[in-house]
Amino acid sequence: MFFIFLALSVLFWTMSKLSKEYTHTVEFNAEYINLTKNKTLQNTPNNTLTAVIKTTGFKLLRYNLNTPKLKVDLENVKRNKQKFYYITNNHLSEFQTQLSSEETIIRINPDTIFFDFGKLKSKKIKVTPILKIELKQGYNLLEGIIIEPQEIIITGPEKKLDSIHEIKTELLELNNISSNIKKKIALVIPENLNKVHFSETEIEIRGVVEKYTEGSKYIDFEIKNVPDGFNITTLTKKVKLTYKVSLDNFNKIQSSDFKVICDFKKTQNEGLNYLFPTLVKQSSLVSDIKIAPKTIEFLIKK
After folding, report:
1. Where are the alpha helices (DSSP H) in the chain?
2. What is this structure's pTM?
3. Identical fold, 119-211 and 214-301
4. What is the mean pLDDT of each run of 10 residues along the chain (302 residues)?
5. Each residue of 180-194: b (16+ CB within 10 Å) or e?
6. CB neighbour list of residue 292: distance below 8 Å, 6 or more residues apart
7. CATH class of the structural domain 19-115
8. Three-state DSSP class for 110?
């Protein structure tokens, strides 16, 4: 019985204390509203506001259990020559409407909140994939790696966007590859770009991988820019082109797919006694083309 009466006494005492009014400092989370659509906050303003309020102990107990919010209306922001600012204690009546009739706001700290507004801007930037791809011996990539998208659109504060020209991906490492490639890679977005919106957060890379073999063709070459009255005779009549090609495309390659020229004017200008064969046309189905011989000796008959 003693403990029952003791518990009841403590309960009534607590209820009596909590029903009284107190003046106390309460911390609120700041929520900024009514930001103009074409503007953005380039700095991080105060996330918390400290308010001195007068209310009952019951209300204060609730604040200790859960941090409440106070909305700051950015339509009421003022501007001087240098900065935008908001004087919190000039808007106590607006804050008061967000509380119950049993609570009275006396003052708010900080008294002034400063803002750095900037215009929203959009621009395209290049995506740079970070790849480390090793193919299995005897296999090759046809037409290289395809990246989609190659560019993305970013939107955010003008100051931040001016310094951004590309975005990189996470490292994708593939070894001993003998089949087609199709992978998604996430973009690496720096933490300081948290206010920037990215149209994509990942890209896709694709590549056709085929088994290849080596092919070769003997090609006639053409001599360009021979002066009038000069008759050029070369000791070599053809050049040999060696290339890599997939097994499926091996029989599709024709000599007419290639064209080799020698520029006599270049030889004259450099005072040489040989010509340089240069490949000016090739099949899109081949890669790693080599020309032999690399130089061609000639005789001039005037």
Report:
1. 2-18, 57-65, 92-96, 158-161, 264-269
2. 0.53
3. yes
4. 54 48 79 77 78 72 73 84 82 84 84 80 91 88 87 86 89 92 92 84 91 90 87 88 88 93 89 90 89 89 70
5. ebeeebebeeeeebe
6. 239, 240, 242
7. mainly beta
8. coil
